[in-house]
Design brief:
The chain has 2 domains: about 15-135, Orthogonal Bundle (Rna Polymerase Sigma Factor, Chain: A), CATH 1.10.1740; about 140-220, Arc Repressor Mutant, subunit A, CATH 1.10.10. It contains 12 helices and no strands. The protein has helices spanning about 15-30, 30-40, 45-60, 70-85, 95-115, 115-120, 125-135, 140-150, 155-165, 170-180, 180-200, 205-220.
Amino acid sequence: MENIIFVSRHYLIGRSFFHIYLLNMQAKLLSDDELLQSIKRDDVTAFEILYDRYWKALYMKACQRVDKDEAKDMVQEVMLTLWNRRAKIFVKEDGELGRYLFTAIKYRMISHYAFSKAEIRQVAVFDILDEVQANGLETKELQALIEKEVSKLPSRMQEIFRLSREDDYSIAEIARRLNISEQTVKNQLTEALKRLRTSLQSRISGGWALILFYLFCQFNNK
């Protein structure tokens, strides 16, 4: 897989039009689960089909909170991580892999505001997903604690945070709704996460990466 290099959008170096046509034909016949099983057997073509199936939707999702170049990088990062971890990923039913990928990209997007660049390189998105799936860590007590700390944020900051977390508004949508600049939204969201990190990290086991997952993914799967 290391010799595959992703270029602009989703196309791969060396693809012919005929090759793309064959991939599209195969894609219509195979389920996500079937593709994943082939990927586990190191089938690069199956991975290309899966990449083509999801790249645009993941990219559009990422563009809600980051710029286009960052969105492309995030999708590539998530998909390459899927390939590198292919032997460790298990899904229980067809359709679950898609939810897995969208949760991963959502987590990676918010990590952009919650972590420094150095920390992001150390955040193992799929490790967090696997830990939550394996242990079923969501509890009413945890949700109540998070809600209590969110309610302590300043009113405007809290409003921006809730629009992002609970209503899944994009940065641009929040800016239009509140008649403020997109940079102000980003600054407020970053500051909210900084405050929540300080208040929650000492009270919840598992580290900030896991807490962040609870904040944006576990309690809100839109």
